[in-house]
Amino acid sequence: MRGTALAAAAMAGALVLAGCAKDSGAGNNNNASTGDQSASCVTAPKPPAAAAASTSSSQAGEKVDGSKLKVALAFDVGGRGDASFNDSAAAGTDKAKAELGVTSVTESTAAATEDEAAKSQRLDQLASQGFSPVIAVGFAYAKAVGAIAPKYPNTQFAIVDDDSVKAPNVTPLVFAEEQGSFLAGVAAAYKSKKCHVGFVGGVNTPLIQKFEAGFLQGVKAASSKAKIEDEYLTPAGDFSGFQDPAKGNVKAAAQIAKGADVIYHAAGASGKGVFEAAKSNNAMAIGVDSDQYNQKTVEASKDVIITSMLKRVDVAVFDYLRALAKGDLTTLPKRFDLKVDGIGYATSGGKVDDIKDVLDGYKAQIVSGAITVSDKPQK
C-alpha cells in the first residue's frame, strides 16, 4: 500500500507540473524554437485566445472603376525601392492599377537634404499637370500640402502620417503605429534568448516615437525583466536617418555588442543596415512597414527577419483611391489601426508561427480596448 501511495503521489506531481507548463505564459510553443533561456524571459501569463480575425475594408465591396483617376505619388526620402514605407505606398497604387483599372500614375521622390520650397514645388508641379489625387507620402510634406492644396481647390490631395492640414480637398491617412509595434515588442520578448532586445529609430520625431512607445510597452507586457536598448540614428530635422544603412548597421551592431539579440527598427531604408548587423552578429531582427522578409532589397538578410510590423500604407492608399473613385471619402476610417487591419504583423518565413496565438491574443485585447497602447514612450 505504501508503494502504491508513493506511485500515486508521483503521478499527481507529474500532472501538476504538466498543467503548469501548459498554462505558463512562456509555454512549450516558445521552447520549440528559442529554448529554455528565452522562455524564462517571458513572465506574463499567456493572453486569452483571439476570436476570428477581422477583414480589411480594401477586401470588401462592389466593383469600382478608377480608370478616370490620374494619380501622383510624391514619395518621401528613399522612394520606391526603400523596402519599407514608400514601397508600401507604391504597392497601394499597384493594386489600384490591377483591381480598379487605374492607368495613369506618376511618381516623384524627395531628396534627403531638400528644403520646404522643393517639396512645395513638387506638389505644385504635379497639381498643375492635372494629376488628381496627389498623394504626399510622409509627414515631411505637411507644410507643402498646407501651402499648395488651397491653390488647387478642385484637386484632391492625401497625406500619409499627418492630420494637421485642415482643408476640404485634403484627406489624412494616419495609423496606429504604436499598436503594431506593441506586437513587435511581444515577439521580441518571446524570441530573445538573452532577454535583451533593442530598438533603432531613424529620426527622433513624434511619429517614430509612436513605434518606440509601442515596442517598449509590448516588451514590458510580456516580460518584467527584459533589458531594452533604445536609440535613434539622427535627431529631429535630420531626415538622413531614414536613408543611412551604414549608420543603421553601426547602431544595431553596438546594441548587439551590449547583449541585445533581437533588434526592431523603424528607420526606413536604414533598416537594411540593421538587418546586415543582425546577420553578421548572430542576432535576429524585426522589420517595419512592409513585409521585409519578402523585400528584394534586403533579401540577403531575410533569414534573420523573424517578423515585420506591418503599417499598411498600401491598404490606406488603395482604400483612399477606391473611395475617391466611388465619390465617397466618408467610408475611410479616421485611423488605420489593428481593428481595420491597417496595422498588423508578418508571418513570412514561419519564424513566429509558434507564438502566433500569443500575438493574436494580445491583438484581440488591443482591439477590444482591454489593452490601451500609449503613443508616447514610457521609459
TrEMBL record:
<protein>
    <submittedName>
        <fullName>Basic membrane protein A-related protein</fullName>
    </submittedName>
</protein>
<dbReference type="GO" id="GO:0005886">
    <property type="term" value="C:plasma membrane"/>
</dbReference>
<keyword id="KW-0472">Membrane</keyword>
<dbReference type="InterPro" id="IPR050957">
    <property type="entry name" value="BMP_lipoprotein"/>
</dbReference>
<dbReference type="InterPro" id="IPR003760">
    <property type="entry name" value="PnrA-like"/>
</dbReference>
<dbReference type="Pfam" id="PF02608">
    <property type="entry name" value="Bmp"/>
</dbReference>
<feature type="domain" description="ABC transporter substrate-binding protein PnrA-like">
    <location>
        <begin position="72"/>
        <end position="346"/>
    </location>
</feature>
<feature type="compositionally biased region" description="Low complexity">
    <location>
        <begin position="49"/>
        <end position="59"/>
    </location>
</feature>
<keyword id="KW-1003">Cell membrane</keyword>
<dbReference type="InterPro" id="IPR028082">
    <property type="entry name" value="Peripla_BP_I"/>
</dbReference>
<keyword id="KW-0732">Signal</keyword>
<feature type="region of interest" description="Disordered">
    <location>
        <begin position="26"/>
        <end position="59"/>
    </location>
</feature>
<keyword id="KW-0449">Lipoprotein</keyword>
<comment type="similarity">
    <text>Belongs to the BMP lipoprotein family.</text>
</comment>
<feature type="signal peptide">
    <location>
        <begin position="1"/>
        <end position="21"/>
    </location>
</feature>
